[in-house]
Design goal:
This protein is an alpha+beta fold. Strands 1-4-5-9-8-7-6 form a seven-stranded mixed β-sheet, sandwiched between helices. Strands 2-3 form a two-stranded antiparallel ribbon. Bound molecules: 3,4-dihydroxyphenylalanine. 3,4-dihydroxyphenylalanine binds next to strand 8 and strand 9.
Length: 340
């Protein structure tokens, strides 16, 4: 009798392993486990005829066989379900189709430009300092030698807040802040947003970016400024670019100079980009005015320094041949992606 059970178990396991459809599996389940006429119930009915001593052992064997068969049928069902799911997926999705590459971001072109300038000055020992965009009239104007009635305030007209403070029109407001809060020598870069009441067009914006540079110590002279400016232009635009200093006027420097870099489009011969001059304007610079040093508590007899102010947007426009400042702030991915 036990041999028959072993044979039944082996036969059912073998068939279950080969079954591929639910219907076949259900048929096998009824055939073997069905209450009436199932192979196992038939085997159970043999129990009655056995001598009492063998009944218990036989009953145990029947139960074991039943558990083994049920486990085999469950495993077969799981296998069939898995194939069904894969079939469904294959019908719905083409799993061999290449996936969507996730979009990754990149640094904004203005940030890349700033980082380049910062790299140059960091390697020469300059520190980066950040200051408030909402500034007092004192640091924006008075401290840099622009008194209340001075006409120079007009070309830097900015937005005033009800409490009398203003949105800084230039990063030069960081000069006296930096000088006051640090002992000499001072070698800093102060980048950030600045604001003017300018109407928006291709080359003007009510908000743009500047980088202020300031170096104050004993014995700093105009030659240092020229050296830094020329090196910076070569770093930003290429080794073949020349610089020139054009006399200019700023309230906070004396003497003052406008720094130009030779035009990269025509190599200085004169073209549309440089309006025929062969030169492109980079920014303002000069030797720190004695009044600025005094406002910072420095003795102009002992200390001197240079300062410059660069337009970050302008440098980026020159380097990448961008013709409209508005593209920096419109956040059109088609524009930004070119630099990512
Ligand atoms: N603050 C000036 C402006 O916004 C730029 C400037 C000129 C900054 C000369 C300086 C400087 O530090 O020395 O137009």
């Amino acid at each position: 009798m036990s041999d028959q059970l072993a044979e039944l178990e082996a036969a059912v396991l073998e068939r279950a392993a080969k079954i591929t459809t639910r219907a076949d599996l259900e048929m096998l389940r009824t055939e073997v486990l069905g209450r009436k006429g199932g192979a196992l119930s038939r085997a159970m009915s043999g129990l009655a005829k056995l001598p009492p001593a063998e009944k218990a052992e036989y009953g145990r064997r029947v139960n074991e066989t039943k558990r083994a068969i049920e486990a085999a049928l469950d495993a077969a069902l799981a296998r069939i379900e898995k194939t069904e799911i894969q079939g469904d997926l294959a019908r719905t999705y083409d799993t061999t189709f290449p996936g969507n590459t996730p979009r990754s971001g990149g640094l904004h072109v203005l940030r890349q430009t700033l980082d380049d300038v910062v790299d140059f000055f960091r390697s020469r020992g300059f520190a980066v300092v950040l200051g408030p965009e909402v500034e007092t009239e004192y640091y924006a104007f008075e401290a840099v030698n622009i008194p209340a009635d001075h006409p120079a305030r007009d070309n830097m007209d900015t937005f005033y807040l009800p409490n009398g403070s203003l949105l800084r029109p230039h990063t030069s407001s960081m000069q006296v802040r930096a000088l006051k809060s640090n002992p000499p020598p001072i070698a800093i870069l102060a980048p950030g947003r600045v604001y003017r009441r300018d109407a928006l067009d291709a080359s003007h914006s009510f908000m743009f970016h500047q980088i202020e540079g300031l170096h104050v110590d004993r014995g700093v002279n105009f030659g240092h400024l020229k050296g830094f400016a020329a090196d910076l232009c070569r770093h930003l635009f290429g080794a073949d670019r020349r610089t020139r200093f054009r006399p200019s006027y700023f309230q906070f420097t004396e003497p003052s100079a406008e720094v130009d870099v030779s035009c990269g489009v025509c190599a200085g011969r004169g073209c549309q980009t440089c309006k025929g001059t062969g030169w492109l304007e980079m920014g303002g610079s000069g030797m720190v005015h004695p009044n600025v040093l005094r406002a910072s508590g420095y003795d102009p007899e002992g200390f001197s320094g240079w300062a410059f102010g660069l337009g970050t947007d302008r440098i980026a426009m020159l380097r990448h041949d961008i013709h409209d400042i508005r593209t920096f702030f419109e956040n059109d991915p088609r524009f930004l992606e070119q630099f990512a």
